[in-house]
Write a structure and sequence with these properties.
- The chain has helices spanning about 150-160, 190-200, 215-225, 245-250, 260-270, 285-295, 310-320, 370-385, 455-470, 475-480, and strands at about 10-15, 25-30, 35, 40-45, 50-55, 60-65, 75, 80-85, 275-285, 330, 335-340, 345, 350, 355, 360, 395-400, 420-425, 430-435, 435-450.
- The chain is an alpha+beta fold and about 475 residues long.
- The strands form 5 sheets. Strands 9, 12, 15, 16, 17, 18 and 19 form a 7-stranded mixed beta sheet that branches. Strands 1-8-6-3 form a 4-stranded antiparallel beta sheet, with no helix packed on it.
- Helix 7 crosses helix 9 (about 455-470).
């Protein structure tokens, strides 16, 4: 096997793609030993506890070795790929040799000086010192390719999902390097990932973006043009059989990793660390719903998405301004309550990778149109899977809108480090006593969970009551400002 100590070989280490993350899982390699790479070329996709990220290589050369196979969890600071930057053409080393010790021979990084007075190995500058060796987490059982994106698109185009194949399709081979003289299509990493997921060759896509950049819409248009029409199935002559999924297997095992693993750990830690209390209030929001319709027609909100969540968020911000002690965190080490004089408003969002909670920085300082713009950008970014790790850090209080699923209310669990979370239920037309008469009114139920170590019943009740009061009489957005 080719030695990795030659001066021309550069070792690319797993970077900290978030703030303080210690590991990441290699989801997919885009190159193989022997491939030519250029500075800035994406070589692999990794998933941290917060997001999936594509890693570009920082130099030109020829791939000599991939130190870890897909599905391996690697510590930050550990070399994952070796690149010959000297233009050598030595035969590449095997990518997945496993010696008896259980660690790939190629995974042994070049020896580096150890930190003085310790047995630990220095890693990337600014990332601290690695405290443990790389842990391997092999995938269990055969991997089933994920094709939800292309299936959903074909369903939208044809009116129904394509027929399931009898066996999973084999993984697509890594794309070969572009021939000499052929320009690499211009596209941002998220667009490249979308094209990869949908099986689109970017060299066949007609770009419409500025300077010839391929956009997400261009990729979708290419898929739409390639999807054949699917004929309508004939009516069955016999009663339909049970779903095929129940004919072949009785269980499906899904590895707990990435965003879902981080969410599970955070929720368990929060539930068994902070003593939760949840209070509820049912409120008539008819006037708020009327204001929503009026704002939609206001030129100040032209091009912005105006919905009840916008006014609910503003109502919570007003309540926090009136009761600032609720916007705090518990410092166990210092035995202090840290009151925040800013509000980073978290909005829980369901994504294909799991539940994430990005937050709007300094939401307290935004006008209503600015808050609407920030909410729209937050939701759109989350749906596209492009939420950055930084956007999910530093939240102080959160809103979770369970009403979009038709749920009346719930008992939300706090995000770690936050003191309160507001759950918003479905807004429904219900009989309500209004001005002494029973009338149909728009009604919803709010639930506020809070950390009872730093928010007592009186403070929590006042905050929830203020949110309800603003939603019942939205003119308080002005009188309480």
């Amino acid at each position: 096997m080719t030695t990795m100590t030659e001066a021309s070989v550069r070792e690319f280490k797993m970077p900290d793609v978030g703030e303080g993350l210690t590991e990441a899982e290699i989801l997919k390699w885009y190159v193989q030993p022997g491939d030519t790479v250029t500075d800035g070329q994406v070589v692999c996709e990794v998933e941290t506890a917060k997001a999936a990220v594509e890693l570009p290589i920082p130099y030109d050369g020829v791939v000599r070795d991939l130190h870890f196979p897909e599905g391996t969890t690697v510590d930050v600071g550990t070399s994952i790929i070796a690149v010959d930057v000297g233009g050598g053409s030595a035969a590449p080393a095997p990518a997945a040799e496993q010696p008896a010790a259980g660690r790939p021979a190629a995974a042994q990084p070049a020896e580096e000086p150890k930190a003085a007075g310790s047995g630990r190995q220095p890693v990337l500058v600014g990332y601290g010192v690695a405290t443990s060796s790389t842990r391997r987490r092999p995938r269990k059982g055969p991997e089933v390719p994920v094709q939800q994106a292309s299936t959903a698109l074909q369903t939208e185009l044809n009116g129904h999902a394509p027929a399931a194949s009898a066996a999973p399709a084999p993984a697509a081979p890594a794309a070969p390097a572009a021939p000499a003289g052929t320009e690499r299509p211009l596209a941002k990493p998220p667009v490249r990932k979308l094209a990869k997921d949908l099986g689109v060759d970017l060299t066949t896509v007609v770009p419409t973006g500025p300077d010839g950049i391929i956009t997400r819409e261009d990729v979708h248009a290419a898929v739409a043009a390639a999807v054949p029409a699917v004929p309508e199935p004939s009516a069955p002559s016999a009663p339909a059989a049970a779903p095929a999924s129940y004919d072949t297997t009785r269980e499906t095992r899904v590895p707990v990793k990435g965003v879902r693993k981080a969410t599970a750990a955070a929720m368990v830690g929060s539930a068994f660390t902070a003593p939760h209390v949840t209070e509820f209030v049912t409120v008539d929001v008819t006037r708020t719903m009327k204001l929503v319709e009026e704002l939609k027609a206001d030129k100040e909100f032209a091009g912005l998405r105006v919905n009840p969540l916008l006014l609910i968020a503003k109502a919570l911000l007003v309540a926090i301004r009136r009761h600032p002690d609720v916007n705090a965190s518990w410092d166990e080490a210092a035995q202090e309550i840290v009151v925040k004089h800013y509000v980073n408003l978290g909005i829980a969002a369901a994504t294909p990778r799991g539940l994430i909670v990005p937050n709007i920085k300094d939401a307290h300082a935004k006008t209503l149109p600015q808050l609407a713009e920030s909410l729209g950008e937050l939701v759109a970014t989350a749906r596209e899977g492009k939420t950055s790790p930084a956007a999910m850090q530093g939240g102080t209080v959160t809103i979770t809108n369970v009403g979009v699923f038709g749920v009346d209310t719930g008992t939300p669990i706090l995000n770690p480090g936050e003191s309160a979370i507001l759950a918003v239920g479905a807004i429904k037309l219900q009989p309500w006593v209004h001005k002494g008469k029973v009338k149909p009114r728009q009604v919803t139920t709010l639930a506020l969970s809070f950390d009872h170590r730093l928010v007592d019943g009186e403070l929590g009740s006042k905050v929830l009551a203020d949110v309800a009061a603003v939603l019942e009489q939205p003119k308080r957005l002005i009188t309480w400002a």
